[in-house]
Amino acid sequence: MATRYDAGGSATSFQVSRLDPRLKLKYCDQPLHVHSGSQPNPRGGRVTVQVACEGTSPWRIYVPAEIRNMVQVLSLSRPMSAGERVTEADLAPLTVNANQQTQAYLTDPAQAIGQVVARPMQAGQILTQTDLNIAQIVHRGDHVTMMAGTGGITVSAEGIAQAAAGQGQRVMVKNSRSGQLVEGIVRDAHTVVIP
C-alpha cells in the first residue's frame, strides 16, 4: 500500500489486491515499472494496474487495485434534534473514504455553523448540505424595517413579514402604511432590504 498527501490534507492510498499464490514470476533484475492500465476516477475506486519487468527475464501482469481518497469531513460531536442550531462545539472532524460517500459532504465549519439541523441526527454522523437548513430569523407576522436606497439616500418604512425566512433569503413584506406587498432580502432579524 502507498499513500500520498495533497495540499488540501486529503490522502490518497493505493491498495493492491492479493495476488494468486500459484503465480510464479521470475526474479526481476531491474526496477519494476508500474502504471495504471485504466483511467482512474479522480474520486478513487477500483483500477487495474500493470506491473512489468523489463529485465533479462521480462514479464508483465495486470493487478486489480483500489484507490482510496481519504478526506476530512465534518461530523456531529453529539446527537442533535431537528431545529437545533449548529455551533462550533457541535462539529467534529472525521476522515472518510471519499469514493464511498454518496452525498456531498461538508468540509468547512463555516458551511454549518449557524444553520439548523433539518432532522434528528446522531453523534458521528457525516454532515451534508441536505441535513441543514438556513436558520429562520424572520417569522410570519414579525414587524420589520424595510430599507431601500440608491446613491447614498436610504428610505425606511415599517412592514410586516408575510412568511418566515433566513438571513440572505427573500421574503414578502406588507408595508404597514400603504398595505403594498414588496419583496426584499433579510439582512437581520429586524431589517429587510428592498433591492
Report on the architecture of this protein:
By secondary structure, the protein is mainly β. The protein has 3 domains: 2-69, no CATH class; 71-133, Type Iii Antifreeze Protein Isoform Hplc 12 (Alpha-Beta Complex), CATH 3.90.1210; 136-193, SH3 type barrels (Roll), CATH 2.30.30. 0% of the residues lie in helices and 47% in strands. It has strands at 2-5, 11-16, 33-36, 44-53, 59-76, 91-97, 116-117, 132-133, 136-138, 143-150, 153-161, 165-166, 170-175, 181-188, 191-193. The strands form 4 sheets. Strands 1, 2, 3, 4, 5 and 6 form a 6-stranded antiparallel sheet that branches. A hairpin with a 2-residue loop joins β10 and β11. The model has no long low-confidence stretch (mean pLDDT 88).
Secondary-structure element order, N to C: EEEEEEEEEEEEEEE
The total strand number stands at 15
Strand content: over 45%
Shape: elongated
**Low-pLDDT regions:** none
Helix fraction by DSSP (H/I, runs of at least 4) = under 10%
Mean pLDDT: 88
Q: Main sheet, how many strands, which sense, barrel?
A: 6 strands, antiparallel
Terminus-to-terminus distance: 57 Å
Number of helices: 0
Radius of gyration: 28 Å
Function: Involved in the assembly process of the P-ring formation. It may associate with FlgF on the rod constituting a structure essential for the P-ring assembly or may act as a modulator protein for the P-ring assembly.
Protein name: Flagella basal body P-ring formation protein FlgA
Pfam family, one: ChapFlgA
Subcellular location: Periplasm
